[in-house]
Amino acid sequence: MPFVSITRLRVRVWRYLPGFVIQSLRAARQAKFADGSLAISVLRDADRAFWTRTVWRDEACMRSFMRSGVHRRIMAQLPEWCDEAALTHWVQDANEPPPWPEAHRRLQQEGRRSRVNHPSDAHRRFEIREPRKSSGLVFR
């Protein structure tokens, strides 16, 4: 059954934004070609926040991607670059990604915080705003 991964990251200051965006696009490209990748989308939200929505053949494929290449390297920078970070995973029947409102609901209700060095008040309270679907990239 397909394995879904949702992340939301908020870049804490403008100076980290160019590096974050460049590395995120590289990681999305890596995901597109990773073994077991079924769907990859990135959503640019308001206030320097970014969502990823990925669907994998199984959890092992997602973990293999997560621990390799650009993604592994960028994960080391995120605690300093971001002041909000959260993720959630689940198994579903469909190969298609869930709608963004479902991703938000699951992240808010079932997700967990990731470590950041400079947490915002929203991160401490685990308050996640619903994404504004103004600009998204789908990698096919």
Can you give a write-up of this model?
- By secondary structure, the protein is of the alpha+beta class.
- Helices cover 38% and strands 30% of the residues.
- The protein contains 5 helices and 6 strands, in the order E-H-E-E-H-H-E-H-E-H-E.
- It has helices at residues 17-32, 59-66, 69-81, 100-110, 121-125; strands spanning 3-11, 37-44, 49-56, 82-91, 112-113, 135-139.
- Helix 1 packs antiparallel against helix 3 (69-81).
- It is globular and about 35 Å long.
- The model has no long low-confidence stretch (mean pLDDT 94).
* Helix amount: 25-40%
Structural class: alpha+beta
Gyration radius (Cα, Å) is: 14 Å
Strand order of the largest sheet: 5-4-1-3-2-6
Taking all residues together, what is the mean pLDDT?
94
Largest β sheet strand count, sense and barrel closure: 6 strands, antiparallel
Q: Separation of termini?
A: 20 Å
Characteristics:
140 residues, alpha+beta, six-stranded antiparallel beta sheet, 5 helices, 6 strands, globular
Task: Summarize the entry for a quick read.
The chain is 38% helix and 30% strand.
Q: What topology does this entry show?
A:
Blueprint: E1 3-11, H1 17-32, E2 37-44, E3 49-56, H2 59-66, H3 69-81, E4 82-91, H4 100-110, E5 112-113, H5 121-125, E6 135-139
Antiparallel strand pairs: 1-3, 1-4, 2-3, 2-6, 4-5
Helix pairs in contact: 1-3
